[in-house]
Structures are given as structure tokens and as C-alpha cells.
Design a protein that fits this description.
It contains 6 helices and 8 strands; from the N terminus they run αββββαβααβαββα. The strands form 2 sheets. Strands 4-1-2-5-3-6 form a 6-stranded mixed β-sheet, with helices on both faces. The chain has a two-stranded antiparallel sheet with strand order 7-8. A hairpin with a 2-residue loop joins strand 1 and strand 2.
Length: about 220
């Protein structure tokens, strides 16, 4: 299986995302509700797949984002990141045109220790920060109902394990209703959904090679 270079991927795909801001006790935080990878020159209403990750990392707006309330967020160009490039490789293998990334948390913080501290501020203030929290159930269900595939791929961090259990997605290596149909590469020893982009290129190719049969054998 060939490893498609980033330049070629960026020539084929574009990334848009829905960013907004949340204020907690006078502090303002950048948030991302979803990111959409689209094949250039195509358009379709149905999403080929929704991929669930832990939280937005280095994906940022392509231009300056002014203060945006959650109810006013809209799709806008975003800078692609290495994990999205790996998902573009998956899209090429599957001949997909539209893939959406959502997260266990919308908080844009790549450092997971800093993320945990910020998340605590949201919890203490009673402010939602995830599409998987009850207050966002309608929007979440609408999004998932419009996708052919649901893929869990948030990796093995303690934050991811905790949130996946708290929001009723995944507990002790098992998918939880109503997410039993989700596809995931479960780590054979540590029982968490493997992340799409491990450090080694060979491991990234392995993730693709292992996931493809699960997707191709799934009846849509």
C-alpha cells in the first residue's frame, strides 16, 4: 500500500471546520464543533463517514476568527493537520468524497494535560463542551444519521477513555448502545480504539490496512 504524500493529498482534498468561542468565568476559549474533509470538485449531501477523535489539536481557522457564538458558527476554511492527512489517505482508499470529524470535546487544546485543566473549568461552570453531551443530542443524532459509517478512533489517553465512558460511547473495550454499529480497531491488549496516526509511517499504513476490511465488509 503506497503512502500518499501530503502535497498530493492537499491537492485532492480541502478542509473546512465549524469554530466558535466559549466563555468560562471571563476566559475565552477556541472551540471546534466539527471538521469536514471534502474531495475538491465534488458535492454530496450524504457523509461517507463520521470519525470520532478525542479533541481538536492543531487544526486552526485558515484566517482570523472573530468572536463567534455557538449558534452563529458556520463552515469556514481550516488549516489541515497530520491526522487529517491520514484520514485523507483513508478516503482515497475508500473512494470517499466527504468525511466529518467530531470530537469527544470541542476544546481546541493539543496538550492533553492543559486540556484536562480547561475541561475542569467547563465542568465547574456547567458549560457544555461536547456534541456527545445530552444538550446536543438532537444535533448529534442528525449528524450521525446522515453518515454511512461511524468510526471510533480517539486513541488511548486517559482523557479519551474517561470521556468515552462518561458520554456512553465505549466502556471496557465494548461499544455501548446506540453506538454498537461503530467501526473501530481495538488495541488487542489495552482495549481502546486505535488512533489513525501513530508515530511511525509503517504503523500508519498498518492502521489503514487493518481498517479497510472492516469498512469493506460492512453492509451500509
Amino acid at each position: 500500500m503506497a503512502y500518499i504524500p501530503v502535497k498530493e493529498l492537499n491537492n485532492t482534498f480541502k478542509v473546512n471546520a465549524m469554530f466558535y468561542h466559549a466563555e468560562v468565568n471571563g476566559e475565552r476559549f477556541l472551540m471546534r464543533r466539527e471538521a469536514r474533509i471534502s474531495r475538491k470538485g465534488t458535492a454530496q449531501n450524504k457523509i461517507d463517514a463520521v470519525v470520532v477523535m478525542v479533541n481538536p489539536g492543531s487544526c486552526l481557522p485558515a484566517t482570523e476568527l472573530y468572536y463567534t457564538l455557538p449558534e452563529r458558527m458556520e463552515m469556514q476554511p481550516a488549516k489541515s493537520d497530520p491526522t487529517q492527512h491520514q484520514l485523507m489517505r483513508l478516503m482515497e482508499r475508500m473512494e470517499w468524497n466527504e468525511l466529518t470529524i467530531v470530537n469527544l470535546s470541542d476544546i481546541c487544546e493539543g496538550n492533553l494535560n492543559k486540556f484536562r485543566a480547561i475541561e475542569q473549568k467547563f465542568k465547574l461552570a456547567g458549560i457544555p463542551h461536547s456534541i456527545f453531551q445530552d444538550g446536543n443530542a438532537v444535533k448529534r443524532d442528525e449528524l450521525l444519521a446522515n453518515a454511512n459509517h461511524l468510526i471510533f478512533a480517539w486513541g488511548g489517553s486517559d482523557n479519551a477513555k474517561r470521556m468515552a465512558k462518561e458520554y456512553g460511547l465505549f466502556v471496557k473495550g465494548r461499544l455501548v448502545a446506540p453506538y454498537e454499529h461503530a467501526i473501530s480497531l481495538i488495541h488487542p491488549e489495552k482495549s481502546y480504539p486505535r488512533h489513525p496516526r501513530p508515530a511511525l509511517k509503517s504503523s500508519q499504513l498498518e492502521w489503514l490496512e487493518d481498517l479497510l476490511p472492516l469498512l469493506l465488509n460492512k453492509v451500509v
